[in-house]
Structure to design on (118 residues):
């Protein structure tokens, strides 16, 4: 039967840890610019907006069969509002319109913070 070995205890003591009290300077009140000045920096930032006309699910096999002329039925009916998203957060709904031969969206409703963002 093989002999089992047990770990040997360290005979040397670990070095002592030295504890010191930290001293900090007193915090001074510093005048802060009004929040409006700080927000002005954000006003020129561009945010990508995504408009969703509807959604659908199809098997991957069907997806591979799609080509020019294929039609996918969406989960919305004609006249239902499209959804506007900023960074995957729904913030508004609107109607699809045409402006100068391009698609556009007319805002119907701005959603509050408590709106369902699913």
């Amino acid at each position: 039967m093989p002999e089992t070995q047990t770990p040997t205890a360290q005979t040397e003591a670990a070095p002592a840890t030295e504890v010191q009290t930290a001293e900090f300077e007193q915090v001074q009140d510093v005048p802060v610019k009004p929040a409006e000045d700080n927000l002005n920096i954000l006003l020129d930032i561009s945010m990508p907006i995504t408009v969703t006309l509807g959604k659908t699910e199809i098997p991957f096999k069907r997806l591979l069969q799609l080509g020019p002329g294929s039609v996918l039925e969406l989960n919305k009916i004609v006249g239902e509002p499209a959804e506007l998203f900023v960074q995957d957060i729904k913030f508004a709904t609107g109607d699809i319109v045409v402006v100068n031969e391009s698609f556009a969206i007319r805002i119907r409703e701005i959603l509050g913070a408590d709106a369902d963002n699913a």
